[in-house]
Amino acid sequence: MKIVSAEFLKSAFKEADWPRDERPEIAFLGRSNVGKSSFINSLLGVRGLARTSSTPGRTQAVNFFLINKKFRFVDLPGYGYARAPKDVKAKWNAAATDYLAGRTQLVLSIHLVDSRHEPTNQDLQLHEWLIHHDRPHLIVATKSDKLSNNELRKNIDRARRVLESDEVLPFSMVTGRGREETWRAIEGALKRYAAK
Asked: Which of 96, 80, 171 is CA-nearest to residue 133?
């Protein structure tokens, strides 16, 4: 896909502040330190649109980005690592769950896992939740360039076993590996939404 425009729309802490039009949305989910913002920037071929931080857990709101004036990327709060009070974490989790459960414009969830590590219990819970609620999703294993080909193959096989999924796509922001496949999944989801 050719990216003509990509702009930050808004950060929303509650549903009342979400965009109201019917443009389709692609959501990005994963642990606080999995690199969601970097992944979004890499997909779009831009720097700094989704703000990255060396401190995990900086994304505390639901962040909306308008792409090509036609669809939105949605960066959801990460789970796990964030050093935040329990009540704040509970609000983040509620925001993400409300969004995933009720958003009719959501056409694809991209679940990011770290290719260097075995998927966590939280990764598994999210995967099971998406399946239970019949939400179309793609599992992408980030940071694949940090492993040898042999290590990567073993870790991808392990992730498939843990998550009980045939498809776990290796992705590298450095080499571009997996970028085309990710865009194919996004374009397919957008076409299905347009055909409704």
From this structure: 96
What is the CATH number for 27? 3.40.50.300
Whether 133 maps to a domain, the answer reads yes
The reply to whether 1 falls in a domain is no
Quickly count: other Cβ atoms within 10 Å of residue 51's Cβ. Answer: 13
Which parts of the chain have pLDDT scores under 50? 53-58, 81-82
What's the Cα-to-Cα distance from 176 to each of 27, 42, 108, 179, rounded to whole Å?
20, 8, 21, 6
- The token duo for 79 is 């789970």
pTM for the model stands at 0.90
